[in-house]
Amino acid sequence: MFKGIKDVDRNYIQQSSVSFIKHAQAMFTQFPDTQESRTGSNTEALPSIWDDWYGFEDRINQFITANLNLQAALDDQVHDRKLRKAFFAVARGCKSCHDNYRND
Ligand code: HEC
Question: Which of 14, 23, 32, 41 fits a 20 to 30 Å CA distance from 8?
Answer without folding.
Answer: 23
